[in-house]
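If you are new to this repository, start here. Below is one unmodified record pulled from the training split, so you can see the exact layout before writing a loader.
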Amino acid sequence: MKIRFWGTRGSIPVPGKDTIQYGGNTTCVEIALDNGRRIVIDSGTGIRALGEHLSQRGETVDIHLLVTHIHWDHVTGFPFFPPIHDPRTRINVDGYPPCMKGLKIPFDNKMSNGLFPVKFDDLKAQINYVGGLGTGPLEVDGVTIDRIALQHPQGGFGFRFREGANTLVFLTDNEITEEVLTGKSAEDYIAFCKEADILIHDAQYTPDEINSRRGWGHSDYLSTVELAAQAHVKKLILFHHDPSRKDHEVTSIVKHCHEYASQKDSDLIINAAEEGGELII
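And here is the target side for that same chain:
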């Protein structure tokens, strides 16, 4: 599997000189399977650049789009994904059950008829709702995709991908807490992440910030390191960077995480997601 980050930011896009290294676009992650099949997680503002990249390749776009949840920063880029205007494009949508509702809302809804100049039903691409993850694991070209409920307001899904002996876990917008908010305990998340090659996890807040933001559905970076260490993950990627976080502050967080893991005698590899960055399992 090859993983590429097209959007790493949380809550709202923040382009500018202070977010060049780690990126200012909101959540969008591309996973290229060994056979070339592409799976895309979320359609935040990062999906626009992904769409331009795919269009420039001149290939017919045939992707699986997995939606973690339908908060604005995870769906707002979909109207600007160029392949949706090409009749050759095929998009199979799955993930959190209201995902199709989330993709349609930026175009039009019953509360307003003036949100976007193009209606969802006028899109030329073939957009199909699969819905397999609502009932159990999904198989895509030899990859098994499992899901777990996110501890996040209005709910959502995190995903685990298994291709052969390789495992990737993606848990953004997930609040690590001892409270059981979605019927899942801390032990459930440890089991879900157990021995993953790569864990990409929400680390939006600092330990100082988290106490005033409990219930907002995001984690502080030290709790994220604890989860990864307890699950014996090989590599942790900090994700969903706070919109107020400047590049040098994210770099400082990574350094602090390394020091914390060292104090715990953990050999966990820790990095922060960078827009445009790639990982290979």
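Two things worth knowing about this chain: The mean pLDDT is 94. DSSP finds six helices and 14 strands in the chain.
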